[in-house]
Design brief:
- There is one protein chain.
- By secondary structure, the chain is of the alpha+beta class.
- It is 18% helix and 31% strand.
- The protein has helices at 2-26, 88-102; strands at residues 118-125, 129-135, 144-149, 152-159, 165-170, 174-182, 191-199, 204-212, 217-224.
- The strands form two sheets. It has a five-stranded mixed β-sheet, with no helix packed on it.
- A hairpin with a 4-residue loop joins strand 7 (191-199) and strand 8 (204-212).
- The longest helix is centred in the first third of the chain and has 25 residues, at 2-26.
Length: 225
């Protein structure tokens, strides 16, 4: 008889246990309460405002800004007078005149010209010979010239014309002294002439113009290296 009582008690507890388990599965889950200040709650970053795309693909680059100024440049104020030329030919002629005056000796343009003998320098060359040329630099008015080389008369009485004339000189080793002597001053004075010394390659070694009083000479030295 005890056996039956024990069996029924065990069966009752078994049925009760299954009933509790089934009731738990059908019950509503516990609600989750969110806390605003919960340090463990993950914050979802808000999407940032999209950057507007620029239409110019080069706008992000440091490209230089080019400004076009079509206005006429302002003329700078100068305290010195400026020369104005009507045409390029006038400017060219003006430059030639300046270059010619740059090589003029002292006394050029004066009625008497240079009154004392002058030394116009020495020039070096490797040439075996040179050409000595001369002509009337100004108006052809009867200027006469005498030429010496190392003290010897090479041309005694040269009538200067508009074109070049002269002679070829075979150089000695060392110094070769050339003197140009003004025999007269011509009809208008002074004795005006130009000389050129050219090496055997055609290059001009020395060139100058003069205005000499009668009886004055100028000297140049050509050194053969």
């Amino acid at each position: 008889m005890k056996f039956y009582y024990s069996f029924f008690i065990l069966l009752f507890f078994t049925i009760s246990s299954f009933a509790q388990i089934d009731s738990r599965n059908k019950s509503t889950p516990f609600p989750v309460i969110e806390r605003e200040n919960d340090s463990l709650k993950a914050e979802i970053p808000k999407p940032s405002t999209p950057i507007e795309a620029k239409s110019d693909p080069l706008s992000g680059m440091n490209a230089p800004r080019v400004s076009i100024d079509l206005s006429t440049p302002k003329r700078q104020l100068s305290m010195f007078p400026e020369e104005e030329f009507g045409n390029p030919g006038e400017l060219y002629a003006k430059n030639l005149d300046r270059q010619a005056k740059a090589v003029l000796p002292d006394g050029y343009g004066e009625n008497a010209g240079l009154k004392e003998d002058a030394f116009w320098g020495d020039y070096h060359t490797k040439s075996l010979s040179i050409q000595v040329k001369y002509r009337d630099y100004s108006a052809v008015d009867g200027d006469l010239l005498r030429v010496y080389v190392n003290g010897d008369v090479i041309r005694s009485n040269v009538y200067l014309t508009r074109g070049f004339s002269g002679f070829t000189l075979k150089l000695l080793e060392g110094s070769n002294k050339i003197d140009f002597f003004a025999i007269n001053t011509g009809a208008s004075g002074p004795n005006t002439a130009e000389y050129r010394i050219v090496d055997d390659t055609g290059a001009v070694i020395a060139s100058k113009v003069w205005a000499l009083e009668k009886g004055v000479k100028v000297t140049v030295v050509v050194v053969k290296d």
